[in-house]
Amino acid sequence: MYIYFVMILNTTHNNPEHSKIIDNLIGHPFTLVQKLKMKGVGSKRMIIDDVSPNMQSMMNKVSDINYANIELRPKGILVMINQGLKNFTWIIPYYQLVLYKVNGSSIHAQGRFVHFKNNKTFKENKKFFDKLLDKKVKYDAQFSMPQSI
To answer: pLDDT by residue (tens digit) across 75-108?
Structure first.
């Protein structure tokens, strides 16, 4: 059994160990048939408006725009952040995921957050965020306690 404390990986270069970590935490990628049935599992590129202080090191130092996209997995999501030529992947299991919709959208987990700018690219992802919320609700429902009478 693995215990992982690092939930953000530098995925600029392919590393088989990173794939194992991601697959163990949030499941293998969906199959092509599943992706087609779900009408896609990835968001379009979104502009990052703000991040928590403990994620500032992954942002561009100059005034470049920071981008990220999200991929759905069976037990969580991957938030892929681009910093120039580097790529970082934030692994978030559904049980840690909290979403806020305030002037855009904000993803919170593990004491970190990423806030996406409310613009055209964000609005194009409305169906994706609906799908993400649906997946999280279905995942959480597996572990809900029965209501007492």
So the answer is: 999 999 988 888 999 999 999 999 998 888 899 9
Taking every pair of Cα atoms in the chain, the longest distance, rounded to a whole number of angstroms, is 58
Cβ atoms of 92 and 77 closer than 8 Å: yes
Q: Strands 98-100, 105-109: parallel, antiparallel or unpaired by DSSP?
A: antiparallel
Which domain, by its residues, includes 119?
A: 8-141
In a domain, 94, yes or no: yes
Which amino acid, residue 92?
A: I
Give CA–CA dist 76/132, Å, rounded.
Answer: 9
Q: Are 89 and 15 in contact (CB under 8 A)?
A: no
pTM: 0.88
User: Residue 147: is its pLDDT beyond 70?
Assistant: no
147 within a domain of the structure (yes/no):
no
> What's the confidence (pLDDT) of residue 37?
93
- Statement: residue 118 has pLDDT above 70: yes
Residue 30 covered by a domain: yes
CATH classification at residue 124:
2.30.29.30
User: How many domains, the chain?
Assistant: 1
Other beta carbons within 10 Å of 9: 19
